[in-house]
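sry for the spam today, last one i promise. C-alpha cells for design, 423 residues
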C-alpha cells in the first residue's frame, strides 16, 4: 500500500479509532496522539506488506501505542491491564477482538467525539481545527491549506485544544439528552463554518475549495446517521447537498467565477439535489429551523429552471422567516437581494442603507457589492462603480475580486447591471 492508500483508510477509520481509544483511556489527547503514531507506523510497514484488515491493524497498533504511553506515565494501571489483554493475539490477527470494542457502541463513541471536539470551552478556531483533525481525519497540512494559515498555527490550535479539554476535565461521553440538544447547535455551527469556507473561500486564489466542502458534507452525513431524530442535522445536510450540487457550474475551466444567471444548469449535480431534497423533507417533518430554512432557500434555487423562473417571492418569505428565528445582518443583506429580484431595486436599496446606517457589517465587502448592484440597476452608475470598487478593495478572495472589478468597469453599461449577484 502507498501513502494514498494509508490516507484513505485513515480518513475512514480515524474517528472510530480515536473515539474508541478515548473511551478506553479516558484521555483525549493520548488517544489522538496514539492514533497518529499508528498512521506513521503504517506509512512505513504497509509498504512491505499490506494487512488483511487495515482498520483493525490501525486500531490494534494505536491501542499498543496508548498502552506504551500509559506505561511510561506509571499511571492508570488497571486500565492498562484491561487494554493489554490479548494484545499479542490482536496484533497477529490484525483484528481487535476485545469485548470492549463493541461495534454497537462505535456510533455513540463517534458522536461523543464530535461533541468533545466542538466543546464550548474551545475557541471557534480550535473547534474547527480539532474537528477536522480527529473526526475528519485531515492532517495539519490539509487544514492549513484549507484555511490559508500556517501549519504551526494549526498544530498550536490543536495542541491548545487538547490541553484545554484536559484542564477542563471534559468527560468523554454523550451529554444528557437535554444538554445534547443545547450543544448540538455548536456542533452544527462548526460543520457550517467548514462547509461555508469550502463553498466560498474567504481568501486566496480559488473561489471554491471542494475538498473542504465535501469533508463537511461527509461529517454532516455521519452526524445525521448518528442523530436521525434531530431535524436541524438534516437541515444542515440538505443545505450542504443543495449548495454543493451547483459547484460544477460555479466556476469556468480556468477557475473564474460564473454568475448565477450565466451558469449552465445542466451541469448541476442532480443526485446531490435529490439527496438534499430528501434531507429537507426529513427536516421539515418537525418544522424548519435556521439550517432548514436556508436549505429551503437553496432548494428554491436548485429546482428553478432559470434565474427569471425562480420563485423569488417565496425566497423573500423564507428570508423573513429566517430573520425571525436567526436574525443577522447577512440574512438581511440576502433578503435585500431577493427583494430586488422579486420587487425591484428601490425597496432593496432601503434595506441595505438601513444596514449601513446601523453599521451592521463594517468592513465586509458584501454590503458594497450588493449596494453597487442595486445602484447600477437604478441607473446611478457612478455611485455603483464607486461601491463595486470599494467592494473589490475589501474582498480577500482574488477570484471574487476580479469579478467585482470587471463589474465596476462595466458599470457604465446598463446590461451587466441586470445580472444576478455572484453565486
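last one done:
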Amino acid at each position: 500500500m502507498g501513502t494514498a492508500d494509508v490516507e484513505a483508510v485513515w480518513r475512514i477509520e480515524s474517528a472510530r479509532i480515536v473515539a474508541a481509544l478515548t473511551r478506553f483511556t479516558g484521555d483525549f489527547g493520548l488517544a489522538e496522539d496514539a492514533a497518529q503514531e499508528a498512521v506513521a507506523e503504517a506509512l512505513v510497514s504497509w509498504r512491505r506488506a499490506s494487512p488483511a484488515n487495515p482498520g483493525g491493524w490501525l486500531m490494534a497498533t494505536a491501542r499498543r501505542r496508548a498502552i506504551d504511553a500509559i506505561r511510561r506515565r506509571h499511571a492508570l494501571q488497571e486500565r492498562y491491564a484491561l487494554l493489554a489483554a490479548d494484545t499479542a493475539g490482536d496484533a497477529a490477527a490484525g483484528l481487535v477482538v476485545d469485548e470492549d470494542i463493541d461495534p454497537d457502541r462505535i456510533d455513540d463513541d463517534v458522536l461523543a467525539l464530535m461533541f468533545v471536539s466542538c466543546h464550548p470551552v474551545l475557541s471557534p478556531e480550535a473547534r474547527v481545527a480539532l474537528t477536522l483533525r480527529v473526526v475528519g481525519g485531515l492532517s495539519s497540512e490539509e487544514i492549513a491549506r484549507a484555511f490559508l494559515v500556517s501549519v504551526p498555527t494549526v498544530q498550536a490550535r490543536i495542541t491548545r485544544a487538547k490541553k484545554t479539554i484536559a484542564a477542563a476535565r471534559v468527560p468523554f461521553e454523550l451529554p444528557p439528552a437535554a444538554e445534547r440538544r443545547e450543544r448540538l447547535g455548536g456542533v452544527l455551527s462548526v460543520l457550517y463554518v467548514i462547509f461555508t469556507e469550502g463553498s466560498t473561500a474567504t481568501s486566496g486564489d480559488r473561489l471554491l475549495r471542494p475538498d473542504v466542502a465535501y469533508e463537511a458534507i461527509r461529517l454532516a452525513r455521519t452526524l445525521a446517521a448518528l442523530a436521525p431524530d434531530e431535524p436541524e442535522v438534516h437541515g444542515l445536510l440538505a443545505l450542504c447537498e443543495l449548495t454543493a450540487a451547483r459547484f460544477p457550474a460555479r466556476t469556468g475551466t480556468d477557475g473564474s467565477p460564473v454568475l448565477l444567471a450565466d451558469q449552465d444548469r445542466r451541469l448541476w449535480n442532480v443526485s446531490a439535489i435529490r439527496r438534499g431534497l430528501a434531507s429537507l423533507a426529513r427536516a421539515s417533518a418537525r418544522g424548519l429551523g435556521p439550517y432548514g430554512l436556508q436549505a429551503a432557500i437553496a432548494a428554491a434555487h436548485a429546482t428553478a429552471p432559470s434565474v427569471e423562473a425562480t420563485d423569488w417571492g417565496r425566497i423573500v418569505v423564507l428570508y423573513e422567516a429566517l430573520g425571525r428565528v436567526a436574525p443577522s445582518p447577512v440574512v438581511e443583506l440576502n433578503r435585500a437581494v431577493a427583494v430586488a429580484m422579486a420587487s425591484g431595486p428601490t425597496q432593496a436599496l432601503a434595506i441595505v442603507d438601513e444596514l449601513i446606517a446601523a453599521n451592521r457589517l463594517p468592513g465586509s465587502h458584501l454590503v458594497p457589492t450588493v449596494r453597487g448592484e442595486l445602484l447600477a440597476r437604478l441607473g446611478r452608475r457612478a455611485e455603483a462603480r464607486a461601491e463595486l470598487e470599494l467592494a473589490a478593495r475589501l474582498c480577500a478572495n482574488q477570484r471574487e475580486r476580479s469579478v467585482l472589478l470587471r463589474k465596476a468597469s462595466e458599470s457604465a453599461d446598463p446590461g451587466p447591471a441586470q445580472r444576478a449577484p455572484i453565486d
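Confidence is low (pLDDT under 50) at residues 91-106, 416-420. ok im logging off now
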